[in-house]
């Protein structure tokens, strides 16, 4: 009576661990996000096991059935399309239900695109925040990127091929001068990892040096706390007499932060001041 949460390759099938292979060979049932994708992996390693599709749209409807199977003494392996389940993938509801029913849940660690990207990004990894996929709507995405730009620790998030160029363009405006790593198609044939300032990253997308194809993991360096704190102290003083735009212009003459970055911070501080009054 155990649910195994099994990590599978994010691209290269050779990244499948011995333990993961043994677990999938030994369980009674495999709950797969996409049976077709998982079938390719199973065929590569000559694993023949019954599968059931469990994804975002049907996970809650299957909970009773899955719990019943587990309570009958059988074992289930939970796998996503690629990487570690529950990391922006289905599975949370099932794991949560297993915990509430005192059913054992065992992790079978392995590939994870978030950790893979951090390991090659060349950015601080002592603290980081994973944000999942950026929002679909442009307005929500701008709000999301502003929040990312104000965090002190390294930020990691996913992006889709049809939105990546617009996201990079917005990042160049909202976080000028920031170090960014773009990781495309990690572990796959056309793997590409590019580390540079966001302005250079944008140029590479504009010239198609970085194609808008494949799966993307974006890693962003956090803002420098000491500098931002000093900026905020001056901005708070200036905002008592000046507009956010004028305050940013004055502050940019004293600090290394760009006028654009200072203006965004001034807007945020102005909103906070208005809420307090």
The CATH topology of the largest domain turns out to be: Cobalt-precorrin-4 Transmethylase, domain 1
Radius of gyration: 23 Å
Assign the CATH architecture of the largest domain: 3-Layer(aba) Sandwich
Average pLDDT across residues?
Answer: 92
Number of domains: 3
What proportion of the residues form beta strands (DSSP E)? Answer: 15-25%
**How far is the N terminus from the C terminus?**
57 Å
Rough outline:
elongated
Number of DSSP helical runs: 11
Low-confidence stretches: none
Overall helicity:
40-55%
Order of neighbouring strands in the sheet with most strands: 3-2-4-1-5
Q: What is the number of strand segments?
A: 10
> How would you name the CATH homologous superfamily of the largest domain?
Tetrapyrrole methylase, N-terminal domain
Structural class: alpha/beta
What is the string of helix and strand elements?
A: EHEHEHEHEHEHEHEEHEHHH
Name of the top-level CATH class of the largest domain: Alpha Beta
User: Describe the biggest sheet?
Assistant: 5 strands, parallel
Strands, helices and their partners?
Blueprint: E1 2-6, H1 18-26, E2 29-32, H2 35-44, E3 51-53, H3 59-71, E4 75-79, H4 92-100, E5 104-108, H5 113-121, E6 128-133, H6 138-149, E7 154-159, H7 164-174, E8 179-184, E9 192-197, H8 198-206, E10 216-220, H9 225-238, H10 244-251, H11 259-276
Parallel strand pairs: 1-4, 1-5, 2-3, 2-4, 6-7
Antiparallel strand pairs: 7-10, 8-9, 8-10
Helix pairs in contact: 3-4, 6-7, 7-8, 9-10, 9-11, 10-11
Keywords:
10 strands; elongated; 3 domains; 277 residues; Cobalt-precorrin-4 Transmethylase, domain 1; five-stranded mixed beta sheet; five-stranded parallel beta sheet; alpha/beta; Methyltransferase, Cobalt-precorrin-4 Transmethylase, Domain 2; single chain
């Amino acid at each position: 009576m155990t649910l195994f949460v099994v990590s599978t390759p994010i691209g290269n099938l050779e990244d499948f661990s011995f333990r993961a292979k043994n677990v999938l060979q030994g369980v009674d049932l495999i709950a797969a996000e996409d049976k077709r994708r998982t079938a390719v992996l199973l065929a590569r390693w000559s694993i023949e096991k019954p599968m059931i599709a469990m994804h975002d749209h049907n996970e809650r409807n299957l909970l009773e059935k899955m719990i019943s199977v587990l309570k009958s003494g059988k074992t289930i392996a939970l796998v996503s399309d690629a990487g570690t389940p529950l990391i922006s993938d289905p599975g949370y509801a099932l794991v949560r239900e297993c915990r509430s029913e005192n059913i054992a849940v065992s992790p079978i660690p392995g590939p994870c695109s978030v950790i893979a990207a951090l390991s090659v990004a060349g950015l601080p990894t002592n603290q980081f925040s994973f944000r999942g996929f950026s929002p679909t709507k442009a307005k929500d995405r701008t709000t999301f990127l502003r929040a990312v730009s104000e965090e002190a620790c390294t930020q990691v998030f996913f992006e889709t091929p049809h939105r990546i160029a617009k996201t990079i363009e917005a990042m160049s405006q909202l976080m000028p001068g920031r170090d960014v790593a773009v990781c495309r198609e990690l572990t796959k044939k056309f793997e590409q990892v590019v580390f540079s300032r966001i302005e250079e990253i944008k140029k590479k997308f504009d010239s198609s040096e970085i194609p808008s194809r494949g799966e993307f993991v974006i890693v962003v360096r956090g803002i420098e706390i000491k500098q931002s704190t000093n900026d905020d102290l001056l901005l708070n003083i200036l905002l008592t007499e000046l507009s956010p735009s004028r305050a940013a212009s004055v502050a940019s003459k004293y600090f290394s932060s760009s006028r654009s970055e200072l203006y965004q911070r001034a807007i945020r501080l102005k909103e906070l001041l208005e809420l307090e009054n």
